[in-house]
Amino acid sequence: MEYTFILSSLLNPCSLISLILIVLIFVFRSSFRLNSSRKLQLPPGTLGLPFLGESLQIISAYKTENPEPFIDERVKRYGNVFTTHLFGKPTIFSTDPDVNRYILQNEGRLFESSYPSSITNLLGKHSLLIIKGNLHKKLHSLTMSFANSSIIRDHLLVDVNRLVKLNLNSWSDHVLLQDEAKKITFELTVKQLMSIDPGEYSEKLRKEYVLLIEGFFSVPIPFFFTTYGRAIKARRKVAESLLSVVRERRKENPSSGNGGGKKNKDMLEALLEEECGLSDEEIVDFMLALLVAGYETTSTIMTLVVKFLTETPLALAQLKEEHEKIAAEKGYSGSLQWSDYKSLPFTQCVINETLRVANIISGVFRKTTADVTIKGFTIPKGWTVFASFRAVHLHQDNYKESRSFNPWRWQDDLASMSSIGNGNSFTPFGGGPRLCPGYELSRVEICVFLHHFITHFSWVPAEEDKLIFFPTTRTVKRYPINIQRRNCQVE
Questions:
Q1: Which of 427, 440, 426, 430 lies closest to 341, judged by CA?
Q2: 3-class secondary structure for 43-104?
Q3: Residue range 266-284: mean pLDDT, rounded
């Protein structure tokens, strides 16, 4: 009946004329806004279809293995910075590394992060991804201090080795690598945040968390039977679960979270410090956001690095040789130490190249807080800007044969590995004040995983799988592989 009513309404001459007038008005307004924008020296471009803009085109492109034509066609027509209309807003799309760097470095001055309310509802208004100003600076600095090289070396690396090996020991002959990698990164993040080992609590939390994650990429209709509605419900359960841990920890040490002046052993203890002055709600939102960051991105890189290596036998052979040398010295039962991690140059090349080709973070949305003039263009205050990392990473001017997986390209520029987030053409972890605070820890986790996986297993793909990039970078079938244990054992 509903569809019959809609159809009859559209066939009604008056209604049809009204609809045409609405569309024409929208087209006129879009055209007027773009023409007016040209007077303001906005980048050239098009606002696309009425209401929808070019959202359908970019979504369709990113659901394939090759989203590049969406960007390439517009860059060829308009240049490296162009105007479009995405997800309900006119947007400046940048594929220029200098412009992207300018956007990242001017966070908090000329630009600010901006997320739709549907995302805020799931992350929480106190999430590190959303908060701004001094509170963001304080919590970002705190997170960096818990994931720096010395902390990883002296405290975290032991748990990374232990939990990776624990998970590998449970693998059967056939695994969905993407799912198993996510389990590893979730358990690692829970341990680092709250010092909780894998068990009933973490597994129950993870199951609710999976439902929460699904909501980020769904239509934000909050009914209980929708994906988004289930995500909102799961979010409440995750928050309640984290809150119970926070309150219990406060009871244990109500005056301070540092155990009478001892060095903090996890992130939660630091958040409970008196000098932070954070409420329980703020702490829960903060931890929930770190779970998001640690769970999705690192696990995807773990999966894709194995996929790319499998498809590049020469690279796999060289990587195996590098890790076999260390494993043989330790009798295959030892853990990867910090000195080992620093002595694996080709592994770092492989990780860099996976980050470049995969583009787990395709780019970032920002909103202008003032009129911004750059490269001869003026972007009005309040406009959305998208800095595309993917476009820079896969541009032929920046990387020869840029769309091929070639880890050897990094051997000629090993120094660049220490400038992640600071260079113009390689920004897999963002940059500026919002540089991912866990980028070094993420690399360590990937390296430890590769070490134990490569030295203890052989594998073949169980079936063909392909990579797509919407709503996130992932494999369609979660990368199923058949594995076989080698003679050595993961102990």
A1: 440
A2: CCECCCECCCECHHHHHHHHCCCCCHHHHHHHHHHHCCEEEEEECCEEEEEECCHHHHHHHH
A3: 86
Residue type, 424: N
Q: Which two tokens stand for residue 399?
A: 């990387």
Average pLDDT over residues 145-153: 91
Radius of gyration over alpha carbons of the chain, in Å? 24
| Residue the block writes with tokens 């000098």 | 275
pLDDT greater at residue 116 or residue 293: 293
Q: What is the pLDDT of residue 73?
A: 95
490 contacts: CB under 8 Å, gap ≥ 6: 165, 168, 169, 452, 456
Q: What are phi and psi of 429, to 5 degrees?
A: -110, 20
Q: Are strands 384-388 and 89-94 parallel, antiparallel or unpaired?
A: parallel
Report residue 40's pLDDT band, with 50, 70 and 90 as the boundaries: low
Angle, helices 55-62 vs 68-78, to 10°: value is 130
CB 124 within 8 A of CB 284: yes
Return the closest-CA partner of residue 417 out of 338, 355, 340.
Answer: 355
Instruction: Give me the pLDDT at residue 101, please.
Output: 95
pLDDT digits (tens, 9 = 90+) for 209-223: 989 988 876 677 878
Show Cβ contacts of residue 366 under 8 Å, excluding neighbours closer than 6 positions: 103, 107, 111, 112, 113, 114, 384, 385, 386, 387
Question: Is the pLDDT reported for residue 413 higher than 80?
Answer: no
H helices of 330-467, where?
Answer: 338-341, 345-358, 389-393, 439-456
Strand spans (E) along 95-211:
111-113, 174-176
pTM as predicted: 0.86
Stretch among 60-64, 94-98, 459-463 having the lowest mean pLDDT: 60-64
Is the pLDDT at 192 greater than 90? The verdict is yes
State the burial class of residue 231 (Cβ atoms within 10 Å of its Cβ: 0-12, 13-18, 19+): buried
Asked if 45 and 79 count as a contact pair (C-beta separation under 8 A), the reply is no
Instruction: Write down the pLDDT at residue 488.
Output: 60
* Whether pLDDT at 112 is above 90: yes
Locus of tokens 């239509």: 219
The answer to whether the CB of 265 falls within 8 A of the CB of 253 is no
Backbone angles phi, psi at 93, to 5 degrees: -105, 120
Report the C-alpha gap between 379 and 407 in whole angstroms. Answer: 38
216 near 229, Cβ under 8 Å?
no
Q: Which residue has the tokens 């289930």?
A: 230
Q: Is the peptide bond before 461 cis (omega within 30 degrees of 0)?
A: no
**Lowest mean pLDDT across 273-277, 289-293, 395-399, 420-424:** 420-424
The rounded distance, in Å, linking the Cα atoms of 12 and 112 is: 47
Q: Confirm or deny that 349 is annotated as ligand binding.
A: no
Q: Are strands 111-113 and 174-176 parallel, antiparallel or unpaired?
A: unpaired
Q: Are 310 and 461 in contact (CB under 8 A)?
A: yes
